[in-house]
Amino acid sequence: MKEISFSDQASKAMEVLRQGAFLTAGDGDKSNVMTIAWGSIGFMWGKPVFTVMVRPSRHTYQFMDRGEFTVSLPLAGMKDALALCGSKSGRDVDKVKAAGLTLRAGQKVATPVVDGCGLYYECRVAYRYDMVPGQLGQDYDAQWYKGSDYHTVYIGEIVAAYTD
């Protein structure tokens, strides 16, 4: 592992994120992995942050309240694993096993990362907020929230960033 500044690979991370990344929440004993394609890396409150969104209806949601998460960005391959983790629920399937993934302990948080991805961010939740109906632009609301399953937004302080 090579530790990097949060911004060293930020452009690459955003490019990869658009194709899919693994969000993991929980700890080494009980966690869940889901696929995300939305998020951002930035700087708030004098700290580097990674912002992710999780709908309360998702199995991962219950693990987010433990206060930390990791984002594992696959630099090559893993398309099938991303598809499985984005289409199955951890309530019904052991996605790590079904996708042939291996979890590796986080360096600074109890939440694991998905091994073999190449780029990793470990985060502690600094702030979370529930999206409020009626405060999102109408076009976005109509396209993404027809069922009113609004996200909770998590802003996580990046406490570790590294590459394989």
Automatic annotation (TrEMBL):
Q: What is the protein name given in its UniProt record? A: Flavin reductase family protein
The record ties this protein, via SMART domains, to: Flavin_Reduct (SM00903)
One example GO MF annotation: oxidoreductase activity
User: Pfam families under this entry?
Assistant: Flavin_Reduct
Q: Which InterPro entries match?
A: Flavin_Rdtase-like_dom, Flavoredoxin, Split_barrel_FMN-bd
> What domain of life does the native source organism fall in?
Bacteria
Give the family per the record: Belongs to the flavoredoxin family.
Q: What is its EC number?
A: 1.5.1.-
What organism is the protein native to?
Anaeroselena agilis
Keywords assigned: Oxidoreductase
Q: Which residues form the Flavin reductase like domain?
A: 14-164
